[in-house]
């Protein structure tokens, strides 16, 4: 099976599994569950859950990584719903569909995002009930990543920095926490479930790979925001620039942003190679992610 076939197969598996775990659209209260499904089933690359599967594949175990993959997608989608709200990024499109607050209303969108957060931890609790120590580790990784010092903190600083010219240190803080933290957590979740998940040396290498990959991903996203159309992106193109957000592109220019994306990707690949294992797919995925913006 080649890279594209495997990528598509894993995306299909994740989509089918999400459908099974999400409350049915006719479950009371119907409007809330329809809103949750609207955002979760709008498509998307499913990058974070695929990273969970790819990290588990390095040194696989008999423990199923799918529940962890679904959990991180729930947290990711909640963050997108809330980021798109009028009080934050005020976006109309996400994954090629109307954002949750546009398809429903603002209050429903807030509650849909709220509901996806506990669902993530419920999925982990149910999926790893036979492995309580592992479940506790996974909950710890995901909860700290999604909290006030990482994902939410990065979003807060992003809002505070709108219309200003932040330092490179502040911009790096935003990207390391709003974006890279969840990429890093995806790799750590998958690796923890694998057979070498308790080895501190390889866990540290995986954490460094995840941070580098996350920073590369953000640099690529910044490039795409100014080089692709809304139709190609599935979301509002040039939205960050119009909102007065500082990105790598308007901070250092297109060429330097491309260099950053390439450099961080190469660094992530070196860490993955040091870890070893069955890393063919993961290394190809790193290259695939970089090519989106070049």
Strand content: under 5%
Q: CATH architecture, please?
A: Orthogonal Bundle
**Rg estimate, integer Å:** 18 Å
* Strand tally: 2
Helix content: over 70%
DSSP helical segment count: 15
Low-pLDDT stretches are: none
Number of domains: 1
Instruction: Sketch the major β-sheet.
Output: 2 strands, antiparallel
**CATH topology, which one?**
Farnesyl Diphosphate Synthase
**Quaternary form:** single chain
Give the integer mean of the pLDDT values. 92
Going by helix content, strand content and strand pairing, the class is: mainly alpha
**What is the CATH homology-level superfamily?**
Farnesyl Diphosphate Synthase
Walk me through the structure:
This protein has helices at residues 3-21, 30-40, 47-58, 66-83, 100-103, 106-127, 132-145, 151-160, 168-193, 200-227, 230-233, 239-242, 248-252, 254-275, 280-291; strands spanning 93-94, 97-98. With 294 residues, it is mainly α. It has a single domain (3-291), classed as Farnesyl Diphosphate Synthase, CATH 1.10.600. The protein has a two-stranded antiparallel sheet. The longest helix is centred in the last third of the chain and has 28 residues, at 200-227.
Topology:
Layout: H1 3-21, H2 30-40, H3 47-58, H4 66-83, E1 93-94, E2 97-98, H5 100-103, H6 106-127, H7 132-145, H8 151-160, H9 168-193, H10 200-227, H11 230-233, H12 239-242, H13 248-252, H14 254-275, H15 280-291
Helix pairs in contact: 2-6, 3-4, 3-9, 4-6, 4-9, 6-7, 7-9, 8-9, 9-10, 10-14, 14-15
């Amino acid at each position: 099976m080649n890279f594209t076939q495997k990528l598509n197969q894993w995306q299909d598996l994740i989509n089918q599994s999400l459908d099974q775990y999400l409350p049915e659209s006719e479950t009371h209260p119907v409007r809330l569950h329809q809103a949750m499904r609207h955002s979760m089933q709008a498509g998307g690359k499913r990058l974070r859950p695929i990273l969970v599967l790819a990290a588990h594949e390095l040194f696989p175990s008999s423990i199923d990584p799918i529940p962890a993959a679904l959990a991180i997608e729930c947290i990711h989608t909640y963050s997108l719903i809330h980021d798109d709200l009028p009080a934050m990024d005020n976006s109309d499109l996400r994954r090629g569909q109307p954002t949750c607050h546009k398809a429903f209303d603002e209050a429903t969108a807030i509650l849909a995002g709220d509901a996806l957060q506990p669902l993530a931890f419920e999925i982990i609790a149910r999926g790893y009930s036979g492995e309580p120590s592992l479940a506790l580790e996974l909950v710890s990784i995901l909860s700290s990543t999604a909290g006030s010092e990482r994902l939410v903190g990065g979003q807060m600083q992003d809002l505070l920095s709108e219309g200003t010219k932040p330092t490179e240190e502040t911009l790096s803080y935003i990207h390391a926490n709003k974006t890279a933290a969840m990429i890093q957590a995806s790799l750590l979740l998958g690796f923890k479930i694998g057979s070498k998940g308790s080895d501190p040396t390889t866990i540290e290498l995986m954490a460094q790979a995840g941070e580098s990959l996350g920073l590369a991903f953000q640099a690529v996203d910044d490039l795409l925001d100014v080089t692709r159309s809304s139709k190609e992106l599935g979301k509002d193109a040039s939205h960050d620039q119009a909102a007065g957000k500082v990105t790598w592109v308007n901070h250092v220019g297109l060429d330097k942003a491309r260099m950053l994306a390439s450099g961080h990707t190469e660094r992530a690949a070196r860490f993955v190679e040091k870890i070893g294992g069955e890393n063919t797919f993961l290394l190809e995925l790193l290259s695939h992610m970089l090519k989106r913006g070049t």
